[in-house]
Amino acid sequence: MVAKSVEKSQTGSASKSRLRLWIRLLRVSRFIEVEIRDRLRLRFDVTLPRFDVMAALYRHPKGMMMSKLSRFLMVSNGNVTGIVDRLVKDGLVIRSQPDGDRRSWIIRLTTAGTTAFEEMAAAHETWINELLQRLSPEEAEIVHANLGKLIDSETILDE
């Protein structure tokens, strides 16, 4: 009887620890996201979703099908379409159709888009480094590795 009570207490404690972790992850993530959104808007007059689309396309220089881009960003095709429309209008992205398929679009950065993204990405890296500076490089690696245990990074985040 005592063993079951101890086991249940340990399970409850583990559950509470994981719940606290989840809440902390959310708070840290939201804090960083708000900061990055503000900084991108103020310095580059760009939204975080536009930055995210450009980042995905930068990682795929030959371009991405619109449906793959949506899956990669974990948003609907409709959300991506509006962002891509504005990026095309600004000359940062181009659309092309694969041979023989008039229903599909391949999206890729233009030269101007690549240049603009590289400038934004350099600032973004500096900002993230600044926001996470309380962690040593070794601590950052440990947190990264531990969070990697929670998801299949290749299929979800395509790291």
Indicate the mean pLDDT.
89
Distance between the ends: 47 Å
CATH architecture of the domain at 46-156: Orthogonal Bundle
**Morphology call:** globular
- Could you name the CATH homologous superfamily of the domain at 46-156? Winged helix-like DNA-binding domain superfamily/Winged helix DNA-binding domain
CATH class wording of the domain at 46-156: Mainly Alpha
Number of strand segments: 3
What fold name stands as the CATH topology of the domain at 46-156? Arc Repressor Mutant, subunit A
Order of strands, widest sheet: 1-3-2
Radius of gyration: 20 Å
Order of helices and strands: HHEHHEEHHH
Helix count from the secondary structure assignment: 7
Unreliable residue stretches? 155-159
* Sheet with most strands: 3 strands, antiparallel
Global structural class: mainly alpha
Please outline what is shown here.
The protein is mostly helical. It is 71% helix and 6% strand. Strands 1-3-2 form a three-stranded antiparallel β-sheet.
List strands and helices in order, with pairings:
Layout: H1 2-44, H2 48-59, E1 64-65, H3 66-73, H4 77-89, E2 93-96, E3 106-109, H5 111-131, H6 137-148, H7 153-156
Antiparallel strand pairs: 1-3, 2-3
Helix pairs in contact: 1-5, 2-5, 3-4
